[in-house]
Design goal:
The complex is a heterodimer. Chain A is an all-alpha fold. Chain A is built from eight helices and no strands. Chain B has helices at about 45-50, 70, 75-80, 95-105, 115-125, 140-155, 170-185, 200-205, 225-230, 235-245, and strands at about 5-15, 20-30, 35-40, 60-65, 65-70, 80-85, 160-165, 190-195, 210-215, 215-220. The chains are: A mainly alpha, B alpha/beta.
Chain lengths: ~260, ~240
């Protein structure tokens, strides 16, 4: 069949290029989600700092000003398309500062700060969804807010936001294709080249389609596995050698 | 008499315009077991939460060994020495039973891991939970969780242990195991403040019982005196209602 013939031709001639593009796509998604996660974590923690009316006025005002800046960042990046952000930043750097950015580096920067804006809200939600009693318990044993975050709240918040983070990762794999607008040589860009050179648009994009799907699907499975790992085993080992009086007592999950 | 561990002076707490604690004065001495009783909404839990600063009082002072903790700025050191057991247990869900009892010792008291683990195991053994040290909170029953929560508080070797309705969220069959642990603690000389609705228990273990109504302390006396010879009509009415159950 002609279709398979062209798929074969494209793979033979442009396979390496598509593979490289796939690599760049994965790199963009990985860096974007990773850096975005760290940005989100920092902002999320900052936004949930306990600032009380009895704190000194200087502290409260500084907090408010910085908080406003962070909110502005989040809103600007959530309310504009990444394609436009990419164009504005890439050509803006050239126009205003005569900076010729490396497209892949610029792409990683843009996808990171874009993801950071979304992750900030996700992390904040994750932190406030942790039961208030957990904060109170850390307070009652004398932990500072920082210790409480580090040892008790964030581990739970991060577990809770893992599905949303995975979602961001998958979105990043797919949406990194808009960075082709600043000639980042990711999968979509390479596919476009292959399609242009062979004049076989459908077979070329069909291959891209399959690659995108395989990427996203395997990452979904990987994240699910990671979640299960983080939840730990359903059973636990009884400590010591003392005989267990009631056998039913050993492995039951909380029955209340 | 020696200096009280905790002195509460003219303590006030308001949420907005609603005054929950009006003018609370009382002392807790070393080794005392003080139980606070009263109807729902009388301010018992708020009082306990003010004592370990989960709520910031709006007036008055709390003296710990004679020092006003609201002005000394040693809030965290103070909290580490005033333990709390919650109605909803509040075990750290991300940590197993042993780590729940170790994390505070290591991070707040700066103990070595080995020392912290030994102490944690000692107190987990006290509450009969030693064999569960590898379990996670979600794998435990309510009574077991509460016993671990008590061990976690004890691992900090507190001067005073506060109990905020420790059995109210438990199934009736699990109340006994927690009360037994608390009884042993009271007998061991630990200073305790307990908010509870278990009247029989309050009568058995308390050195003093405080009856609260509408944000003030109406009576503060020995269990015998309070149960057999209540001074206020409201105390009598409350006890009658509580005993009927």
């Amino acid at each position: 069949m002609e279709f398979f013939h062209w798929v074969q031709v494209i793979l033979d001639n442009y396979g390496i290029l598509l593979l490289k593009g796939t690599g760049v796509t994965v790199l963009l998604a990985l860096v974007g989600t990773g850096v975005g996660f760290v940005i989100g974590l920092l902002i999320g923690v900052y936004k949930t700092l306990p600032i009380r009316p009895e704190d000194p006025a200087v502290k409260r005002i500084l907090y408010k000003i910085f908080n406003f800046l962070l909110s502005a960042y989040i809103e600007v990046f959530r309310s504009t398309p990444m394609m436009v952000q990419a164009t504005v930043i890439f050509y803006g750097a050239a126009f205003l500062f005569s900076l010729r950015l490396d497209p892949v580096m610029a792409g990683m920067f843009i996808i990171s700060i874009n993801t950071g804006a979304y992750m900030a809200e996700i992390v904040r939600g994750g932190i406030i969804s942790v039961d208030k009693g957990q904060f109170e318990a850390t307070h009652s044993i004398g932990m500072t807010h920082f210790q409480s975050m580090l040892y008790v709240i964030l581990p739970q918040a991060i577990r809770n936001i893992l599905p949303a983070t995975g979602n961001q990762f998958i979105i990043n794999i797919k949406d990194s294709c808009v960075l082709s607008v600043i000639s980042v040589t990711e999968l979509f860009f390479q596919t476009k080249s292959a399609a242009g050179a062979t004049f076989q648009t459908f077979p070329a994009y069909f291959i891209a389609c399959v690659i995108y799907f395989v990427l996203c699907f395997s990452i979904t499975q990987l994240l699910r596995y990671l979640e299960e790992k983080m939840d730990g085993s359903d059973t636990y080992t009884i400590y010591g050698t003392e005989p267990v009086i009631n056998g039913a007592d050993t492995l039951k999950r909380g029955d209340k | 008499m020696d200096q009280p561990i905790i002195q509460i002076k003219n303590l006030k707490k308001a949420f907005g315009t609603r005054e929950v604690l009006k003018d609370i004065n009382f002392d807790v001495h070393k080794g005392e077991v003080v139980t606070i009783i009263g109807s729902s909404g009388s301010g018992k839990s708020t009082l306990l939460r003010c004592i370990n600063l989960l709520e910031t009082p709006t007036g008055g002072s709390i003296l710990y060994h004679g020092e006003n903790i609201m002005t000394t700025g040693k809030v965290h050191q103070y909290c580490a020495k005033v333990g709390m057991v919650f109605q909803q247990f509040n075990l750290f869900n991300n940590l197993n039973v042993l780590e729940n009892c170790v994390v505070g010792q290591m991070k707040v008291l700066k103990c070595e891991r080995q020392e912290a683990e030994e102490r944690a195991k000692k107190y987990l053994d006290h509450v009969g939970m030693l064999q569960y040290i590898n379990a996670r909170p979600r794998q435990l029953s309510g009574g077991q969780k509460q016993r671990v929560a008590i061990a976690r508080a004890l691992s900090m070797e507190p001067d005073v242990l506060l109990f905020d309705e420790p059995t109210s969220a438990l199934d009736p069959e699990m109340v006994g195991e927690v009360l037994k642990v608390m009884k042993d603690l009271a007998a061991s000389g630990l200073t305790m403040m307990v908010v509870t609705h278990e009247m029989g228990f309050a009568r058995d273990i308390s050195d003093r019982i405080v009856f609260m109504a509408d944000g003030i302390i109406l009576e503060d006396s020995t269990p015998e005196e309070l149960f057999n010879n209540p001074k206020h009509e409201r105390t009598r009415a409350f006890l009658n209602r509580a005993m009927e159950k």
